# Entry
Amino acid sequence: MARKRSSTLTEAELRLMEVLWQKRHATVTQVAEALPPPPLAYNTVLTTMRILERKGHVRHDEEGRAYVYEPVIEREDAAKSAVGSVLSRFFGNNSGALALRLIEEGSLGEDEIRRLKQLIDAYEEKG
# Structure
């Protein structure tokens, strides 16, 4: 049975996307060279770029013999998709439960606490 294609990014895909979001366009060689350690082999980067293209996250143009890849989705959209996936898979689409878990697990600074209070106040005003 074929594996269901995921719209969220794997860790390996995210590493390559981070390079593309920064550079805006790059060849496979340029992506491989720009990756932080540990390095990846050219063929691994090429295969992952092809997967990203099949998923609709990147596209390419041909420049001579090289493919130049660019992101189709922005980082914010990828983050939104990842949060949506976690929300549905682990929290039954209950965003309050996810928010509580995040607050319980993290350490919040004063600015974050102030922002949360503002969001709660705005939510309560809406009724």
